[in-house]
Amino acid sequence: MWKCFKKTWSVSEMNSAVWIVRRQPKMRQMMVLLLAALCAVVLPSRASAEAPPAACRNSSECGPNRCCLLGRYSGSEPSCQTAPQENGICRPHQEASNSTVYGSDGKLKYTVTNVYLDVCPCGEGLFCDPNSGGVCKQST
Fold it and tell me: pTM of the full predicted structure?
C-alpha cells in the first residue's frame, strides 16, 4: 500500500497508473506537468505551515503542549517538540532532567535544564499509562 495525497493506493492501482504513464507519451507529458504544477503550489504552502523545531535549553522556552527534547545521540541538539496526544507513545514515570553537554573536543558546549530524553510527556489532560506499555490516556 502507498499513501499519497490522503489516499491509500493498492499495488494494482499503482501498477495501472505506472503502465498508463509509461505507455502513453502524451499522458506522460501531462503527468509531468501536473506534478510540476502541484509541487509549485503544495510545497511552498507546506514549508510555511510547518516551522522547523526551535532550539531550546529549557522546556519553559517551548510553550504549551511542547517540551525541550534532547536526543541520546552524540551531537544531538535540544529542540522544542510537540507533546504526544491521546494514544501517543510515552515513557511512564519520566521526569525532566538537567544535563551538561560537551563537544567532541571535550569542552563544555552548553547546559540544559528541565529537558526530556527521547520523548515529551503527554499533552495537557493526559497521563502516561504504564499498564498499556506507555500510551497517553485521558485523565479521569
Answer: 0.58
